[in-house]
Design goal:
With 361 residues, the protein is α/β, with parallel strands linked by helices. It has 2 domains: 170 residues, Rossmann fold (3-Layer(aba) Sandwich); 180 residues, Dehydroquinate synthase-like - alpha domain (Dehydroquinate synthase-like, alpha domain, Up-down Bundle). It is 48% helix and 17% strand. The strands form 3 sheets. A 7-stranded mixed β-sheet has the order 1-2-9-6-5-3-4, with helices on both faces. Helix 10 crosses helix 13 and helix 11 packs across helix 14. The model has no long low-confidence stretch (mean pLDDT 95). Bound molecules: nicotinamide-adenine-dinucleotide and zinc ion (ZN). The site of zinc ion has 5 residues, from helix 11.
């Protein structure tokens, strides 16, 4: 399938989505980067699975390749790990023309992108996302970050990669839970922008869950296309990019409320989408059937992981901490119909509370 372009003037880049793509890393990166030295930033697990392929491919094109492994997981997406990476690049005498390639999930990509953006005020950066979630979301769009003082993604930058290489073959080693967390984002793209893809997910969910390679490839390609289009029009989230936040206002609040260790991101935004769908009905923005279709699909995908009862007031307060809340107001992304969303700023607290309570029934 042809690469997708993120159009940002001189910072434009392509997103390649292909089965077995990692073998071509060297030739694609060589055509874009003048670097002599390149760091492969990864985790032990991912490097063990896919690192050698990337290493060999880059070496064959004349790069001096330096693998550097960081500990796996969100708890390591912090300043300590960031400085380890920066220290290693300094030790290796990386210059301005060096390159950092992030091979891993969203954690590796976010941290790697941030390191690349600040080392010598910015070196070349390549994203090789290896989770379903990172291939459809985190890997593209140029948001980089680390967590700090218990606050997620609080330090970061907008820094676009030179290219994104999404090899769909790597998805075969993902856990079922990780696969589903990415699927939640794909369902989100359907709701915000593509009724046809949403219908396909409804009709062929089994095929997706069985990881049919052709199906995964097509879903990832289309999701990347939607994200690329939105980012091209609104890189810094002045308007449209907020659509991507559908289900995320409550999703982020729930993830934080449960200390990031009960719900995966996809499971949290599934509750967030159920909330947004019901709120849309309540506010008269869409028909009940539109909400039911969303909730049924998320349920069939196994995304509603049972949760203990939560404190509605505390979760509501966390919704205000969302980076997207402006001037003390929460921006709600709501549905008009499948494939069309709208932004609403003032929603009465009593309505929000009653829908939050319903989520627990
Ligand atoms: N920058 C953005 O726009 C953006 C968007 C969404 C999420 N994010 C960030 O992304 C992070 C979440 O990303 P994630 O879900 O990829 O988490 P992750 O990077 O922690 O990966 C999840 C797990 O999957 C494993 N894994 C990765 N690829 C694998 C493979 N091919 N086979 C087997 N196991 C594999 C990892 O080792 C890890 O244990 C969060 O930190 C979030 O803030 C960023
Ligand atoms: Zn998300």
């Amino acid at each position: 399938m042809k690469p997708i372009e993120v159009k940002l003037g001189s910072r434009s880049y392509k997103v390649h989505v292909e089965y077995g793509l990692l073998k071509k890393t060297g030739s694609i990166v060589r055509s874009l980067c003048s670097s002599e030295k390149i760091m492969i930033l990864s985790t032990p697990k991912i490097y063990c699975l896919y690192g050698q392929t990337v290493f060999d491919s880059l070496s064959s094109k004349g790069f001096k390749v330096y693998p550097f492994l960081i500990s796996d997981g969100e708890t390591h997406k912090n300043e300590k790990t960031l400085f380890k990476v920066l220290r290693e690049m300094t030790r290796l005498s990386f210059q301005r023309d060096a390159c950092l390639l992030a091979l891993g999930g969203g954690v590796t990509g976010d941290l790697g992108g941030f390191a690349a953006s600040i080392y010598m005020r910015g070196i070349q950066f390549v994203q090789c996302p290896t989770t379903f979630l990172a291939q459809v979301d985190a890997g593209i769009g140029g948001k980089t970050a680390i967590d700090f003082e218990g606050v997620k993604n609080i330090i970061g930058s907008f820094y676009q990669p030179k290219v994104v290489l999404a090899d769909t073959a790597v998805l075969k080693t993902l856990s079922d839970r990780q696969l589903k967390t990415g699927l939640a984002e794909v369902i989100k793209y359907g709701i915000i922008k593509d009724a046809t893809m949403f219908g396909r997910l409804e009709a062929q969910l089994e095929v997706v869950l069985r990881r049919n390679p052709k199906m995964l490839l097509q879903l990832i390609w289309r999701s990347c296309q939607i994200k690329a289009q939105i980012v091209s029009e609104d890189e810094r989230e002045g308007g449209k990019r907020a659509w991507l936040n559908y289900g995320h206002t409550l999703g982020h609040a729930l993830e934080a409320y449960f200390n990031y260790d009960v719900l995966t991101h996809g499971e949290a935004i599934a509750y967030g989408m159920m909330f947004a769908a019901r709120l849309s009905v309540q506010l008269g923005l869409c028909a009940e059937e539109v909400a039911d279709r969303q909730i049924n699909l998320l349920r069939k995908a196994g995304l509603f992981r049972p949760i203990r009862r939560f404190n509605v007031k505390k979760v509501y307060e966390k919704m205000f901490l969302d980076k997207k809340a402006k001037n003390g107001q929460i921006q709600f992304v709501l549905t008009r119909k499948i494939g069309l969303v709208t932004i609403q700023k003032s929603v009465p607290q009593s309505i929000v509370f009653s829908i939050l309570r319903q989520l627990q029934d």
